[in-house]
Write a structure and sequence with these properties.
mainly alpha; about 65% helix
């Protein structure tokens, strides 16, 4: 027996799948808030002259949010990775956290490679990502 209004899992109804003008911005705002909260739960660097995970992730978040050459979707995807790094930063030497961090850093590096017009994101990322990788023991 088939239901008249049934949909396959990959289909979306117009109400749910329609691209509304503010949906990307609303999603981006929510992800930015979640990312900020995750970063705020990290400890401040023990040595103020050397940035720690919290400080590096704050810089990365700011540059992502300020980059005009990133679409709202690209910003949301990048901020999701920053949020993952913040969660992993609570215990950076735990093997599962290192694995999550490595995946997030790879995704961010891939975004940098795919988005050459995002100049500020490119410049900052090439400095910040190796530092973050080092904190997580990733090469």
């Amino acid at each position: 027996m088939m239901l008249e209004n049934s949909q396959t899992p990959n289909q979306t109804s117009p109400e749910k799948g329609a691209d509304r003008g503010d949906s990307d911005d609303t999603k981006l705002d929510a992800i930015a808030t979640d990312t900020t909260n995750a970063i705020n739960h990290l400890p401040t660097a023990a040595q103020p002259q050397l940035p720690g995970t919290k400080e590096l992730l704050r810089r990365l978040q700011r540059i992502i949010e300020a980059e005009d050459n990133l679409s709202p979707q690209d910003k949301a995807q990048a901020l999701e990775q920053v949020k993952i790094l913040a969660a992993a930063g609570k215990n950076p030497q735990a093997p599962d956290k290192q694995e999550h961090a490595q995946t997030a850093i790879r995704i961010l590096r891939g975004m940098v490679a795919e988005l050459p017009n995002a100049h500020d994101f490119l410049e900052e990322s090439t400095q910040l990502l190796p530092q973050l990788a080092s904190i997580f023991g990733i090469k």
